[in-house]
């Protein structure tokens, strides 16, 4: 176990899948300020190093006050609207939260020693030229992807800002109460209560376990240079093969029939890019991160259900 430090970390959007794994990863060594939004103060952990605060990142004076009260060494900015369908139908709200609030945070943190860690997404890519490296040209097709890319550009343009941008592939894991579902949780429920599941078999991604995402963020804390990193899992899969792995890892007896379909089958959904697989060469080399296989991480999920405390 590593030693506790005096480093203070503010996490916006802390009641989230990634927030939960970050708290688990960091709370022994750092003073954490966990900012929650609509979900009332959750008892995520009773650890003495943790303080809770309420924060709407679109409320500019509240953000300024929070930064001046907490004086964080690091801000991990998770707060966002991330549901692709919701973003498509609520573009104005999405821009205000994903772009404007990030821009304001950059202004507050510029010319200060505080490091900003921003969680971006593989959705900044069109899906036509995977696997994507950090040097690949982004071309988002969804509102969500466009707002994440705009926020990235603002961060990179802000003078005297120490910032790390991490583009994550789609994450899975155990979310806290009140947080959004992810593929693992969604399909685990459907595997219990459905006879037949239609699953897209021609769109690809390399999903990342939220625990690994939190471990990567831990590695970039207090990094001196501004940088972009791509982080995804070892395996490139479709939703169809993701669910096959889920059945195997969770040892689900008599699963429903899995029907492979093309992405066009679901007419009501915003079409996903064909292949958003992220290349992980840079994190392997610079951060000594070794991506793990999907089945290994799903088995880890089986054996490590996060409790509510
Ligand atoms: N999950 C993924 O697959 C994935 C992949 C790549 C990147 N990311 C990015 O990684 C970050 C964490 O993702 P996640 O899936 O764990 O969480 P998430 O479901 O995107 O949750 C985001 C958090 O932001 C908060 N939030 C929304 N509007 C806010 C506001 N106005 N003020 C303050 N907080 C606000 C939400 O709180 P309320 O619900 O209470 O509003 C929630 O706690 C996000 O930035 C996401 O875009 C996620």
UniProtKB/TrEMBL annotation:
Residues 8-304 form the RmlD-like substrate binding domain. It comes from the Bacteria. GO terms for biological process: dTDP-rhamnose biosynthetic process. InterPro entries: NAD(P)-bd_dom_sf, RmlD-like-bd. Gene3D superfamilies: NAD(P)-binding Rossmann-like Domain. SUPFAM superfamilies: NAD(P)-binding Rossmann-fold domains. CDD domains: dTDP_HR_like_SDR_e (cd05254). This is Putative dTDP-4-dehydrorhamnose reductase. It comes from Candidatus Gottesmanbacteria bacterium GW2011_GWB1_43_11. The lineage of its organism: Bacteria, Candidatus Gottesmaniibacteriota.
């Amino acid at each position: 176990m590593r030693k506790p430090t005096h480093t203070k970390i503010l996490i916006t959007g802390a009641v989230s899948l990634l927030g939960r794994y970050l708290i688990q990863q960091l709370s022994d060594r750092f003073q954490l300020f966990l900012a929650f939004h609509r979900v009332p103060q959750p008892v995520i952990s009773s650890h003495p190093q943790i303080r809770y605060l309420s924060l709407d990142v679109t409320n500019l004076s509240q953000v300024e006050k929070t930064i001046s009260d907490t004086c964080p060494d690091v801000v991990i900015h998770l707060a966002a609207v991330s549901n692709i369908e919701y973003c498509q139908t609520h573009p104005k709200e999405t821009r205000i939260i994903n772009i404007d609030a990030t821009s304001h945070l950059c202004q507050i943190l510029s010319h200060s020693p505080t490091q900003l860690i921003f969680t971006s997404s593989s959705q900044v890519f069109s899906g036509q030229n995977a696997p994507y490296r950090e040097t690949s040209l982004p071309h988002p097709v969804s509102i969500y992807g466009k707002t994440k890319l705009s926020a990235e550009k603002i961060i990179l343009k802000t003078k005297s800002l120490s910032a790390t941008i991490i583009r994550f592939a789609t994450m899975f894991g155990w979310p806290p109460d009140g947080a959004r579902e992810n593929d693992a949780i969604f399909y685990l429920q459907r595997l219990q209560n459905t006879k037949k599941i239609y699953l897209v078999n021609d769109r690809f991604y390399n999903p990342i376990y939220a625990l690994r995402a939190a471990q990567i963020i831990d590695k970039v804390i207090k990094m001196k240079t501004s940088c972009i990193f791509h982080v995804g899992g070892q395996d490139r899969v479709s939703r169809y093969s993701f669910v096959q792995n889920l059945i195997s890892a969770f040892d689900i007896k008599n699963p429903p029939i899995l029907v492979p379909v093309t992405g066009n089958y679901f007419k009501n959904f915003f079409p996903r890019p064909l292949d958003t697989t992220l290349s992980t060469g840079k994190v392997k080399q610079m951060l000594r991160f070794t991506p793990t296989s999907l089945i290994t991480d799903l088995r880890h999920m089986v054996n490590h259900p996060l409790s509510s405390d």
